[in-house]
Amino acid sequence: LDFIFPKKCVSCGAYGAYLCKKCAALVEFVEHPVCPVCQRQAIGGKTHPICRTKYSLDGLIVAVKYRGPVKTLISKLKYKYVSDIGEVLVTLIAQNFWRYEAGQKLMLVPIPLHKRRKNWRGFNQAEVITSIISAKFGVDVSNMLVRVIETKTQVGFKAEDRKKNIKNAFRLAGNVDKNILYILVDDVFTTGATMNEACKVLKKAGAGEVWGMVVAVG
């Protein structure tokens, strides 16, 4: 298939890979982990004690900044149906994972799409990323969240509008174990409205610790 439909760099168009070496050098890694609430520097990606609330995320794992080639990669994955770009994005996460202090007993939970949007798109980009991470690192996956409201796209919304748009969009479809660290997986973290709403559902059900994991922040 690569011979018939050769891969091209999403940034410069060079043949050989979705991200050539030259353009890969332009990717900006998040060298200093940030708090998911205030997005200021935080040791190991953990939420600052002063930022913590009853239902807030306990930490955030992020690989890169949402700009340049990465922005194009994620757009191709979500809107051009190039699902194998997920391998490139997971490689970015793997390169930056050592900076974070997540626990050992983990469960990956992809942020779900509404079934109508998933049927239209053909796949859920968060599930694609999650399945690759699971296979690469041997971590279990649970589709324990269901999207019950077909929300509008968050693109272009201000922070407060994003919260309103995503409110009550998820429900639990499985059992929560308070001894497991749940990691919510998505592609991009902007204001955190979507991931915070999903985290609230898990914590209300008794989850002890919930982190987020995304490819990019911005």
Compact overview of the structure:
With 218 residues, this protein is α/β, with parallel strands linked by helices. It has helices spanning 21-24, 69-79, 86-96, 115-121, 125-137, 159-166, 193-204; strands at 59-65, 106-110, 140-141, 145-147, 170-172, 181-189, 209-217.
Strand line-up of the largest beta sheet? 1-7-6-2-3
Q: Based on helices, strands and strand pairing, what is the structural class? A: alpha/beta
What low-confidence regions span 5 or more consecutive residues with pLDDT below 50? none
Report how far the terminal alpha carbons are from each other. Answer: 34 Å
Count of DSSP H/I helices: 7
Order of helices and strands: HEHHEHHEEHEEHE
Helix content: 25-40%
Describe this structure in words.
- This protein is an alpha/beta fold and 218 residues long.
- It contains seven helices and seven strands, in the order αβααβααββαββαβ.
- It has helices at 21-24, 69-79, 86-96, 115-121, 125-137, 159-166, 193-204; strands spanning 59-65, 106-110, 140-141, 145-147, 170-172, 181-189, 209-217.
- The strands form two sheets. Strands 1-7-6-2-3 form a five-stranded parallel sheet. A two-stranded antiparallel ribbon has the order 4-5.
- α3 (86-96) packs across α5.
- It starts with 20 loop residues before the first helix and ends with a strand.
- The mean pLDDT is 88.
